[in-house]
Amino acid sequence: MSDWADWIGRSETRSDVITPGLLDRFCATLDQPVTGEIPQGLHWCLCLPDAPTAELGTDGHPKKGGFLPPIPLPRRMWASSSVSFDAPLRMGDEITRISTIASIEEKSGKSGDLVFVAIDHETYAGDRIAVRERQNIVYREPASAPAKPVASGATDPSKWDWQQTILPSETLLFRYSALTFNSHRIHYDRLYAVEEEGYAGPVVQGPLVATMLLELAAAKLGANKLSRFSFRGQYPAIVSQAIDLVGRQQGENLILAVLGDDGREIMTALGAI
Prior knowledge:
It contains 4 helices and 10 strands. By secondary structure, it is an alpha+beta fold. The chain has one domain (5-272): Thiol Ester Dehydrase, Chain A, CATH 3.10.129.10. The model has no long low-confidence stretch (mean pLDDT 93).
């Protein structure tokens, strides 16, 4: 497709501050009370891209060729992340995030050509490293046909110790997109999501789904208990289709998942205390 070697090692630095307003809006979006703790997952709402509206592509993302390489495939999504929580964030922290393109890999799959871009993020609170993350973005070919809604079924809760059912609403997706300054149209433009990208409806943001799993862990174990957390998206979660957040603890490790209403794994995740 192209030689992307010149993009490897490219980096950018962004800054932010953790404010009471951000924490209030984050907790309100997730229907969580505001406490003295900064919840794990709030780092995804910091150091956001701020491209002018005129510099957005037809999908609502910033046009390619700035920090990210101009991959000539139209669809992109956050495929997975591996996060290390090295120190808790605190109110008023001055945040610096250094992002570096670690690798670019071309593959072929059942849906055609794929390009995976791995980005390393280092998030500093003052002079201390707070969060380290390897984020994987996948670029895909156009959808061949609109996706059909998933058939309704049942989730077997017997192997899970924790279970919570969520019905993602359009309002929830809107609020999280606002929190993260994410204008990707698959999250709010139903016609675009179905006809242009082949989804069954607006897609629940991957980091939002992952944040729900972090909130499930916090509800069971207490705030800021995880030292590591990784997740991988398997299928899209669709607005107004119920999902089950499930998990179990094995010693200091957590096994977590998000299941569709037919039992399929939408997201799998692992955590460590």
